[in-house]
Amino acid sequence: MPAIVLLGAQWGDEGKGKVTDLLGERVDYVVRYSGGNNAGHTVITPDGQKYALHLMPSGALSPSAMIVIGNGVVVDPKVLLQEIDGLAERGVDVSRLRISGDAHLIMPHHRALDRVVERYLGSSRIGTTGRGIGPAYGDKVARMGIRLQDLLDPGILRKKLELALREKNQLLFKIYNRKAIDVEETVEEYLQYAERLRPYIAETRVMLWDALDRGETVLLEGAQATMLDMDHGTYPFVTSSNPTAGGACVGAGIPPTAITKVIAVSKAYTTRVGSGPFPTELFDDNGQHLRKIGHEYGTTTGRERRCGWFDAVVARYACRLNGVTDLVVTKLDVLTGLAKVPICVGYEINGERFDDMPMTQTDFHHATPIYEEHDGWWEDITKARTEDELPENARRYIARIEELTGTRVSVVGVGPGREENVLRHPLLP
Predict the structure, then answer these.
(1) Is 159 annotated as a binding residue?
(2) Which Gene Ontology MF annotations are present (predicted)?
(3) CA distances from 163 to 139, 153, 160, 166 (A)
């Protein structure tokens, strides 16, 4: 079987964890390929247990799949070990975890700088989670990062940390008036993590190549989403990695020719956490309704999510950019009870209509959505399992999304549970 990419088609929080868990029993490997513990997946099992995963791939709840953290992820070892211990305490087998030795580490100076710089920016802040992800990726690109494999060589770890702190402590102490990071304390702390993480560190590229050669199925799971991509999202209000389909190849070491299916997940409306442009954002009772009924609060931060109507311009952009073969639309049930359900089909900018994403940041900031109104439905759809069991207006709404995005909608989520889905087309043979 080929490799499959699963990603978000909006600004994140679309329900990728649920889809990964849905596929988990039918794939052999689940690979996280980007981001850090600034992302969160919420998975609800058939017996009603709720799991909030941050660094661990959502496939951790699969009974048999190998779970891999790829080289494109930045890892806070303390957070990862807490997550491993939490899952083990609840009876989840974590022995199947493998972590690329080339994954970069989030260090104390990354977290410190992330928080202080964000405060320093004031009203111009990006809206980071303060967990050190951006600074860790910055050091990676600057070729002064510390990788997971460095934990296995105390001499290399100390040498690299001393070099990094030669600059970072100057910034913390002299510019931001913060306490400098102590080299020896940090080395001692991270060597303790090394002893526990050693059994999980592996050459994951070869592992995945061998799996593909054996005909096994590899699911590549992105964190965040398309519109937060460093190169293709709403820069600078983006994450520091590439959660798009191209990033899956880089972040896991999978060749592009191995990927034959790209599954994108989108809510039936739109949400965003943090700062940045959001054309369909609602500031009225409808926005409050979506937030309340959809429980729109961040898995990682607990922050309220900004809510708006479905943006077909963004969705179409994501489908074309990623080469999406199957679209999963989640949380359709949240729209139940609304008399009218608008869809944004284009933007008006300075009197001109745009049906595709505008080129410049300025234009996108000033985009006014052009809406197409659809009649709502009042029936409870949470028990629907086939398309025929959905109300006619709900079926029309999904059909219109399919038409506007140019991509088939294969699964419709009608509730938070693993089984609460309408399957229109199989995601796997």
Answers:
(1) no
(2) adenylosuccinate synthase activity
(3) 12, 16, 5, 5
d(CA 37, CA 53): 9
Mean per-residue pLDDT, 332-336: 98
Q: Is 180 exposed, middle or buried (0-12, 13-18, 19+ CB in 10 A)?
A: middle
Contact 366, 350 (CB under 8 A): yes
Q: pTM, whole model, 2 decimals? A: 0.92
pLDDT at 150 over 90: yes
Residues 224/270, Cβ–Cβ less than 8 Å:
no
382 known ligand binder: no
Consult the annotation and say whether 68 binds a ligand.
Answer: no
- Whether 129 has a binding-site annotation, put simply, is yes
Question: Would you state the structure tokens that stand for residue 287, as one six-digit string?
Answer: 């926005």
Is the predicted pLDDT of residue 418 greater than 90, yes or no?
A: no
13 annotated as belonging to a binding site for a ligand:
yes
Active site residues: 13, 41, 140
What pLDDT was estimated at residue 122?
A: 64
CA 340/CA 347 separation, integer angstroms: 20
Tokens matching residue 70: 């790829």
